[in-house]
C-alpha cells in the first residue's frame, strides 16, 4: 500500500514526464521544421564529437556557411563533455531529447516546490523560442530548484550563474568546481 506522500510523488513524476514528453515533441518538430539539426545544441554535439576524436573542439570546429555551423565552438569544455552521449544519435533526436529531459526536470522542480502556477512558463514565448533552438535555459533553470544541478554553471555560465544566485548552494559550487577540474584533466589548455 502506498502512502499519500508516495502517491503525490508519483503524480509529480507523471506530470513532469508528460511535460517533458510534450516538450521533446515540440522541439523535435520545430527542429525539423527549421532544418537546422540540433540548432543551438548542435555546437555541444560537435564539441563532444571532437573530444571523442581526440581533437580540441576550439581548433577542430571551424565556422561553416550557415547556422548552426556558422560560428566556431565557444562554450566551456564541460559543455562539450556533456554532449558526448548525444553524438551516438541523430542530431535532431539529440537536441529534442536534451530539451525534453531538461523540461521534465524543470517541471519536476517547479511541482516539487509546491508552486504549480509556475508551470505557465511552459506556455510562454521564451519557452517556445528555447524549444525552437534546443536551448540550455530550461536545464540551467533547474539549478534554482535542485542545487545538485548547479554543476551545470560551468557549461553555460551566462545563464547558470543566474539560477545559482536565486538559490545558492555549497554543494552546487563544489560540483561545478569538480566539473571544472575534471575538464582540465581532459584538456588542460582549454581555458
Overall radius of gyration: 17 Å
Proportion of residues in helical segments? 55-70%
The CA-CA distance between the termini, in Å, is 53 Å
Structural class by SSE content: mainly alpha
Total count of strands: 0
Whole-number average pLDDT?
A: 89
Shape: globular
Written as H for each helix and E for each strand, in order along the chain, the element string is HHHHHHHHH
Beta-strand fraction estimate: under 5%
- The number of helical elements comes to 9
Tell me what you see in this structure.
With 191 residues, the chain is mostly helical. The chain has helices at residues 4-34, 42-52, 57-60, 77-83, 91-112, 125-132, 137-141, 157-166, 170-186. Helix 1 (4-34) crosses helix 6 and helix 2 (42-52) packs across helix 4 (77-83). It is globular, with a radius of gyration of 17 Å. The mean pLDDT is 89.
Give the SSE map.
Layout: H1 4-34, H2 42-52, H3 57-60, H4 77-83, H5 91-112, H6 125-132, H7 137-141, H8 157-166, H9 170-186
Helix pairs in contact: 1-5, 1-6, 2-4
